[in-house]
């Protein structure tokens, strides 16, 4: 049976789209059962709906505090009984309730070569620092900001005339196939974690 994925987004959802496209092949071994967001009206939600996934929105502002939001998000995601939860451009840090439920199977793709340039401006920070290689990191989310155990990384060159937009786009072109490849391998073959070392067969 296909593994159940819940994907969390905050924006365009091009990584989500890559997963949706991969899941169209039964041999891939996964299906996106739901797409969730922390805000309404984002293209990622529309992409999910077009592909037949359920969609939901859990807004921080609708709750008295962050813990209540975290509990509500956890409850909502749990309803779909996911095998993996994937943050693909989801611009919120989840809290203890979410990690208690999905820790160890909550993945994030980040547009920098961690541990360099965590946070929401990876490509901008990489350009400002002057690095010559940038890239994307897929990791298991822990309680820190982009600190979890690394599953996979892919590097791309930084070119002399890059802007934040051109570098971000080059990173995304490498990031999407990496995400698709590793999610597929993980659902089909499993994975092991030893300390900080993640091994995917
Ligand atoms: C990705 O590059 C991700 O690493 C970063 O935001 C981007 C999201 O892109 N956090 P998209 O919404 O999947 O197109």
Q: How is the topology of this model organized?
A:
Elements: E1 3-9, H1 14-23, E2 30-37, H2 43-50, E3 54-57, H3 66-78, E4 84-87, H4 96-102, E5 106-110, H5 122-129, E6 133-140, E7 150-157, H6 164-189, E8 192-194, E9 197-199
Parallel strand pairs: 1-2, 1-4, 2-3, 4-5
Antiparallel strand pairs: 5-6, 6-7, 8-9
Helix pairs in contact: 1-6, 3-4
The structure holds 5-O-phosphono-beta-D-ribofuranosylamine.
Number of strands: 9
Small ligands present: 5-O-phosphono-beta-D-ribofuranosylamine
Q: If you compute it from the alpha carbons, what radius of gyration comes out, rounded to the nearest whole angstrom?
A: 16 Å
In CATH, the topology of the largest domain is named Rossmann fold
Summing up helix and strand content along with how strands pair, one would put the structural category as alpha/beta
Question: In what order do the strands lie side by side in the largest sheet?
Answer: 3-2-1-4-5-6-7
- CATH class label of the largest domain: Alpha Beta
Helix share, percent: 25-40%
| Distance between the amino and carboxyl termini | 19 Å
- Within CATH, the superfamily of the largest domain carries the name Formyl transferase, N-terminal domain
H/E series, N to C? EHEHEHEHEHEEHEE
Strand content is: 15-25%
């Amino acid at each position: 049976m296909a593994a159940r994925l819940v994907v969390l987004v905050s924006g365009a959802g091009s990584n989500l789209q890559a997963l949706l496209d991969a899941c169209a092949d039964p041999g891939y071994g996964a299906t996106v059962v739901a797409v969730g967001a922390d805000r309404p009206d984002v293209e990622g939600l529309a992409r999910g709906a077009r592909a037949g996934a359920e969609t939901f929105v859990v807004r921080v502002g609708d709750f008295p505090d962050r813990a209540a939001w975290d509990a509500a998000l956890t409850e909502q995601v749990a309803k779909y009984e996911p095998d993996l939860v994937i943050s693909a451009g989801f611009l919120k840090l989840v809290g203890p309730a979410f990690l208690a439920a999905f820790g160890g199977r909550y993945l994030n793709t980040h547009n920098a070569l961690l541990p360099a340039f965590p946070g929401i401006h990876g490509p901008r920070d990489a350009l400002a620092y002057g690095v010559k290689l940038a890239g994307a990191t897929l990791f298991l989310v822990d309680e820190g900001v982009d600190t979890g155990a690394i599953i996979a990384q892919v590097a791309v060159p930084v070119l002399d005339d890059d802007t934040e937009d051109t570098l971000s786009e080059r990173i995304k072109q490498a990031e999407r196939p990496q995400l698709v490849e590793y999610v597929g391998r993980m659902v089909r073959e499993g994975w092991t974690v030893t300390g900080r070392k993640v091994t995917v067969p």
